[in-house]
Amino acid sequence: MREFIVKNYIYILLAVVLVCCVIGITIVYADSPADIPPPKQKYNEETVCVEPVEVMRKKHFDFVLDHRDKTVIDGIRTKKHSLIECIDCHITASAEGEYARYSQETHFCASCHQYAAVTIDCFQCHADRPEEAIRKKMNPNQTVGRTQEQKINSYLHLSSVKHH
Amino acid sequence: MRYKLDIDTNIDNVLNESSADIVYEVEQDIDHSKRNFLKGAATVGGLSIAPGVMLYQTASAKPNEQAVSNQQRWGMLIDTNLCQEDCDACVTACNEENGLWDLGRPTTDAQWIRKLNIKDKQTGHVTSLPMMCQHCEHPPCVDVCPTGASFKRADGIVLVNAHTCIGCRYCMMACPYKARSFIHEPLVDQLPHAPRGKGCVESCTLCVHKVDRGDNNTACAEACNKDGHKALLFGDLNDPNSDISKQLEKHGGVQIRADLNLNTGVRYQGL
After folding, report:
1. ipTM
2. pLDDT on residue A29
3. Model confidence, pTM
4. Would you call B110 an interface residue with chain A, using a CB distance cutoff of 8 Å?
5. Best mutation site among B60, B62, B64 for testing chain A: the one with the most A CBs within 10 Å?
């Protein structure tokens, strides 16, 4: 046995390295966000988003923070750095027609925030999905599919509980 | 043509007297003539369009990138004689527009507009009216706010900046109209144009998102018009040609608790 190991140590080493690689790749890919629906459109061909992607990755919060005060206090409603527009473009329906919530890892914002362990408060107040997704949930006449219906029923049950 | 002649005579003067002051005068004259020409052109352009169309355009067209200004002061006129006792279309429309989903707890659920029925004990006459934030010129809620979250926008709309609101509720105590609500519990499914969340005070925004969009109306007034009651009239109090200003000039309108000298943007008729 000892002889075998000494003789073939190079093959055994290779096998061990190979196994480690496979395990490592599996772990990395299992952690990466699964199936984030693509954004609605490109802002333009050159920068893709409203600013170049590298800039957006680092500074998107500065942009929305600056825009927030302009909008709330001065009523400036330009669309370029508006959170509503971010959500409208980036949060799209999955193949099943479902819009991800911020609590799910397939939500565009959450996919990175969860990975980077960032905690934000934006979506405690702001809509994490486009208006059509929210209205669709609220209005039973517009919904399709059973799971959606169940959700509405549970919502209606919540509202019908009155305190006397 | 006349202006050209004027300039010519002035240039003659310049040549005769060769004084710097007069040269300046000539330049002023040119400016003046230009201005008059522009004024004339504007009048001709204005006349060629129907007056109603012109008014609508001037009232609603605020470009998105332009900040609001005190050129406007948004307000509302409520005719209590037209307001129906058993109707709450304005309340429903407000809830629908701003996503004020009922949580089934009437004592604490948010309420931006509510209906009041006031009975005169002597005559038995019942007056019905909607009550909401009165968008005061001197709002007590703004006076007492410790963080500056409660503020009045340049165009007279009183708002809560939820980013700086700490939920102390001083403003709710200070408001003589009980117009504000506090959000007691976590919310979901807020609408994009009306963000709202736990721990903040909120109230009627005079449909600020609609105003900025140029709709020139609020959800409650639209609903009231749709039902044919036409008790609510939204408009610009600073524009003497707006319907609301004309109505106020013709028939007047009172403030509730006028004794507080708050100069409310919401006025009532028939009280």
Report:
1. 0.74
2. 56
3. 0.72
4. no
5. B64
